Every structure is written in C-alpha cells, then in structure tokens.
Amino acid sequence: MTDRYAVIGQPISHSKSPTIHNAFAQATHQDLRYEAVEVPAGTLADALQRLHGDGFLGVNITLPHKADAPMLCEMISERAQLAGAVNTLIRSDAGWRGDNTDGEGLIRDLQRLAYAIKDQHVLVLGSGGAVRGMIAPLLAEQPASLTVSNRSPWTPEKLAEQFRTVGTVTPRTHATLKGDRFDLIINATSAGHAGVMPRIPAGVLAKGGACYDLTYGTAHAPFRKWAEAQGATRIADGLGMLVEQAAAAFALWRGVRPETETVLASLRPSQGA
Ligand code: NDP
User: Fold this and answer.
1) Any bridge partners for residue 186, and if so which?
2) What does the pLDDT look like over 15-25, one tens digit per residue?
3) Do residues 62 and 36 lie in contact, with contact meaning Cβ atoms separated by under 8 Å?
4) Is 87 annotated as a binding residue?
5) Residue 273 banded pLDDT, cuts 50, 70, 90
6) 112 C-alpha vs ligand 1 centroid, how far in Å?
7) What is the structure's pLDDT at 270?
8) What distance in angstroms lies between residue 222's CA and the mean position of ligand 1's atoms?
9) Which one of 29, 140, 225, 244 is most buried, by most CB atoms within 10 A?
C-alpha cells in the first residue's frame, strides 16, 4: 500500500510542499503520496486524530498551526521544544512525535549558497516562530555576534532570555540599530507579504555584507530590493530554505536524504507570487 503524508494549514492550496515531496519520492524511488489538506484554525486536534486514524505516516505543519502543534504531540524533539513550534510530525503508535526542521533548512541553504556565518556579525529581523527555530542553529555556527531586532520591543528581549543557556543573543528594536554594522542580515519578518520593508536604518549592512530573505516570490521582495540598494554582495530568497527544510523532514520519515538542487531548480521558473 502506498504510504501517505500531508501538509496541513490554511490557506494551503498554494503550498509547494506536495510538489517538493512528490519529487523527492520519485527521485529516491519511494512509494508514497503527499497531499495538501486544508485545516482551519481551531481544528488542529481533530485533524491530527483523523490523519492518524487514516494511517498517515507523517505530516508537515504550516500557518496557523506551528505553535499549537507541540501540545498535541506525545513527544517533541529538543529543537522543536526550543523553537516552541513544530513543523514536522512523525507517526508513532500512540500519536505523533513533533520536530522542527526550519532552522536546519536555513543553515543548509546558507551552506549551499556558501554564505559565511562563523565569525560574522549576524542580524536577524523579526522574532516570530521562524526566528525561534533559527536561533540555536545559528548560534551553533559560531557567529561573532547574533542580534535579533523586531518592531515590537519586548519580543527580542524575551528571546534573548529564553536562549540565554544556548548562547548570547543581543535584543534590539529596528530603530536602535542605527550606527551598527552587520555582515549578514536575515529577514525573517512577514513584512514582505504586505509588500513592505521593515523600518531599519540605512547603513546597517557592512561593506561586502550579504542578505538572506526567508520570503520568496517576486511579489514579496521589498527586503531583497533594499539589500540591492544597500550594495549587498549576495542576496538570496527563502525558496532554498523551503526545499531544505522539506528534505530534512523527508529524511526523518524515510531514512534517506534527497538531493535538493534539482527540485529547487524546477521550482524557480514558476515561483511567482
Ligand atoms: P510570525 O507571524 O510568527 O512572525 C512575523 C514577524 O514579522 C514578527 O516578528 C512581526 O513583528 C514581523 N512583522 C510583520 N509585519 C511586519 C512589518 N510590516 N514590519 C516589520 N516587521 C513585521 O511568522 P513566522 O516567524 O512564522 O514567519 C516569518 C516569515 O518567514 C514569513 O514570511 C514566512 O513565510 C517565512 N518563512 C519562510 C520559511 C522558508 O522555508 N523559506 C520557513 C518559515 C517561515 P511583530 O512581532 O512586531 O508583529
């Protein structure tokens, strides 16, 4: 019987995950079917019970459920616990084990693109769920410093405190970045979805600095345009991270890590909005 997997969230019809995972399955000769299932806010528990009953072996979780999923898992990984969010579920007899592959996806994409992290001054914009998943993996790469900046002042403070045992995170607001210089700036805000750029001061990107945008698609590109205007030597969007976090989930489920370049290249021409 064909093994079944799904991505759940709302909205879900535009998710690229089915395309990515079905391509991984074909490339690695795995007999599986991966589908997108619409799950509205407030119905996650019922949906997970239903998927378990229907025999699904694994589930990816996206907006708006990532932060609600941990409490519905019988066990969660240390990285998911630190992130306070689950994006991958692995079936167990009793229910679901939760994991979070977003941070691993980011680091693998930065490595694929040969971005330097070690000894670099790194600035992360935003402090939502994605940032919580990125902090520990970024600190493990030994940056010279890691600063997290957000438009709302209290969330970076909270993150710095939460990750104190893992490493040093300098909390800032966008306005107080004036005068600082960073070698790598990672945009992990959702501002691009509204077509806007987080209001950070000009001049914070060091000469020769690089920029990475978690969002992708031409309609969500204000940060990449800003990076270009600031003279960034490297600019990348988050499509590679999307594919890499999917590959990490696929490896957890199937015990085989798929090659990512081919799938990434196939997504590029149609990436659109
Ligand atoms: P959250 O909703 O948890 O956090 C959103 C963050 O964006 C908050 O820090 C929020 O600030 C900030 N923000 C929103 N609008 C603005 C604005 N106009 N100006 C400045 N800051 C703003 O989202 P996630 O952390 O889950 O996701 C963040 C982004 O990363 C999304 O675009 C998502 O699509 C993308 N992502 C990409 C992945 C990939 O694989 N490429 C994986 C995961 C996420 P405040 O606290 O002040 O509201």
Assistant:
1) 124, 212
2) 999 999 999 99
3) no
4) yes
5) very low
6) 23
7) 55
8) 14
9) 244
**What's the mean pLDDT in 1-27?**
97
Same domain, yes or no, for 10 and 68? Answer: yes
Q: Could you tell me if 133 and 187 lie in one domain?
A: yes
Number of domains in the chain: 2
Same domain assignment for residues 86 and 177: no
Q: The domain that contains 133 carries what CATH number? A: 3.40.50.720
**167 φ/ψ sector (left φ>0, alpha ψ -120 to 50, else beta):** left
Cα of 240 vs centre of ligand 1, distance in Å, is 17
Q: CA-to-CA distance for 171 and 152, rounded, in angstroms?
A: 11
To the query of whether residue 66 is one of the catalytic residues in this protein, the response is yes
Q: How buried is residue 141: exposed, middle or buried, by Cβ count under 10 Å (0-12/13-18/19+)?
A: middle
Residue in 100, 104, 189, 212 to alter for ligand 1 test, most ligand atoms within 8 A of Cβ: 189
Predicted confidence (pLDDT) at residue 164 exceeds the cutoff of 70: yes
Residue 159 and residue 116 in one domain: yes
Q: Decide if 79 contacts 138 (C-beta within 8 A).
A: no
Q: Is the pLDDT of residue 33 over 90?
A: yes
Split at pLDDT 50, 70, 90, the class of 272 is: very low
Q: What is the ipTM of this complex?
A: 0.99
Read off the tokens for 90: 């692995």
Report residues whose beta carbon is within 6 angstroms of any ligand 1 atom: 102, 105, 126-131, 150-152, 155, 188-191, 193-194, 196, 198, 214-215, 238, 241-242, 245
My answer on whether 120 and 225 are in the same domain is: yes
CA distance 6 to 36: 6
Q: Are 43 and 153 within one domain?
A: no
